[in-house]
Amino acid sequence: MKKVLWIIGLCLIIFFLLFPFFQMLSTSFKPPNEQFTVPVNFFPKTFTLINYIQAIQFGEFARYFINSVFVCVLTVIIATVIALFGAYGVTRIEFPGRKFILILILFSQIFCLAAIVIPLYTMLGKLNLVNKYQGLIIGFLTFSIPTGIWLFRSFIVKIPITLEEAAYVEGATKIGSFWKITVPLLKPAFGAVSAYIFILSWQEFLFSLVIMNDQKYRTLSVGIMDFVGQYETNWGNLMAASVLITLPVLVIFLFMQKQLISGLVEGAIKE
Fold it and tell me: Are 92 and 98 in contact (CB under 8 A)?
């Protein structure tokens, strides 16, 4: 009986998680006259791609997409490199305050982004980086670097330090052993960290909204609000745009799910 209840509960959770996405996908393929019919049609009677065509052609959608790709790719590259060196430093190098820094890195992920967006906006304003890609990338780095460090560290601690010590015996330097021994063994970690950072950056809304006031610099997460009018909302186009925004994240997750799950689990159980 208990097993049956667990299965029923699991099915309910899956239903509530997937039903909004199913409804979004279904509405994106419906013509306007089918979107609010009573009783509700869960599947479109007339299958159409007009919502996707109009969404792609709508306003600055293409520019928003390019902005999102540009900002997220640069964020992934910068954050991954910094997180790699940071994780190696706090994992392999003994120095005063190392544990405190680890706690600080973990503690920084507890903060709600809304708590730092105003101070960050003020700082970027003084540096003249508001409405600039550099400013938004800095904003994304504030939450992606700590996450990357913690994920990288979960992989580094699994690499036996004796491998690096053997390299020292052969005459390798600290940096040499890092590049020749540690980095090649971290290939799965690079995939997990870069994918997770990309997903976080791609879906981020608050920083994009506050830092990018100029329409031409907006990312997709904010630009999608263009489909919501003052008196009317084009739900078909909005749902189609939402599906298009979701696709890159879905594709990355499908290809990198093993690395992502492994990185998150390892990061959660390591001290």
Answer: no
Cβ neighbours, 10 Å, residue 49: 10
The number of CA neighbours under 13 Å toward the Cβ of 167 is 15
Residues 6+ apart with CB under 8 A from 73: 198
Mean pLDDT per segment of 10 residues, for the chain of length 271 residues?
81 85 86 78 82 83 90 94 90 82 80 83 90 92 90 86 78 79 84 88 88 86 78 80 86 71 51 43
**Angle between helix 50-57 and 61-92 (nearest 10):** 80
Structure tokens that stand for 259 in this block = 């690395």
What's this model's pTM, rounded to 2 decimal places? Answer: 0.83
- Rounded distance between C-alpha atoms, residue 246 and residue 244, angstroms: 5
Pick the CATH number of 60-269 from 3.40.50.620, 1.10.3720.10, 1.20.1250.20, 3.40.30.10: 1.10.3720.10
- By the 8 A CB rule, do 149 and 105 touch? yes
Contact (Cβ atoms closer than 8 angstroms) between residue 236 and residue 32: yes
Strand partners, 233: 228
